[in-house]
Amino acid sequence: MYKLEAKNARLFYGTKQALKDVNMGILPNTVTAFIGPSGCGKSTFLRCFNRMNDLIESARIEGEFLMDGKDIYSKKMNVDEHRKKIGMVFQKPNPFPKTIFENVAFGLRINGINNKAVLEEAVERSLRQAYLWDEVKDDLKKSALALSGGQQQRLCIARTMAVEPSVILMDEPASALDPLSTAKIEELIYELKNQYTIVIVTHNMQQAARISDKTAFFYLGELIEYDKTQKIFTNPGKEQTENYITGRFG
After folding, report:
1. What are the b/e assignments for 115-147, b being 16+ CB within 10 Å?
2. For 143-170, what is the mean pLDDT?
3. The model's pTM
């Protein structure tokens, strides 16, 4: 069964159609990359899966979005419970103005977990998963804002993982980072798919080629092509995909 699925998915902002009949199934424990020029619907589509477009008054969704076979937009769906299962990492690192420890523990505390031992175990586990523990283990009481940009982004990933979601959505998680930090984030994503289903929006086609199992190419709100990453980058089935990948437009 697909972990995430869209069937004839359409999204409108008022009268403007931003997504046009998108059909896609994403398997568990894979990395899927969304590529395409700016404004083509990649991030809009990504945010449909954790219902972030609900926060935009003019947004209207048609078609189906499913997670584990269940309708994400069903009236019976508890949105808060759903969002716990889907972590989100944004383009710019957004740590809270709190200590490193409290950043990672934040989601657990919101969910009513205040047991010191439980929090300490979860914080250490998440920071280790994010390859950050060895760098910050002696500074957990320091402000997260004192970390470098790359460390802040890995902290945000640790914060996401602390509440044990099953899916992590990433909206250009390395675009604001230097090449070294980007390499660490990519290595981390590659490792994390053993435990999570990961979907990443990226403008960096080399990044998509390096870390993803499947790649989806969007253009003007349409899903033009979706296939194994190697095929998309070496033998795309659509001329539009080839033109974008070879730099003829975009």
Report:
1. eeeebeebbbbbbebbbbbebbeeebeeebeeb
2. 96
3. 0.93
Contact assessment for residue 243 and residue 249, using Cβ atoms and an 8 Å cutoff: yes
Indicate the average pLDDT of the chain: 95
Task: Tell the CATH superfamily of the 4-245 domain.
Answer: P-loop containing nucleotide triphosphate hydrolases (3.40.50.300)
Quote the CA–CA distance of 220 and 200 in Å, as a whole number.
Answer: 18
Average pLDDT over residues 51-80: 94
What integer pLDDT is reported at residue 247 of this predicted model? 87
Q: What share of the chain is helix, strand, coil (3-state, %, to 5)?
A: 40, 25, 35
Res. 228: pLDDT tops 60: yes
Least confident of 32-36, 62-66, 107-111: 107-111
> Would you list the domain boundaries of the chain?
4-245
* d(C-alpha 239, C-alpha 237), whole Å: 7
Identify whether the C-beta of residue 20 lies closer than 8 Å to the C-beta of residue 221. yes
Backbone angles phi, psi at 74, to 5 degrees: -65, 145
Residue 197 CA neighbour count, 13 Å, CB half: 18
Residue 25 token pair: 């199934």
CB atoms within 10 A of CB 92: 14
Residue 86: both structure tokens together: 């889907």
> What values do phi and psi take at 4, rounded to 5?
-130, 145
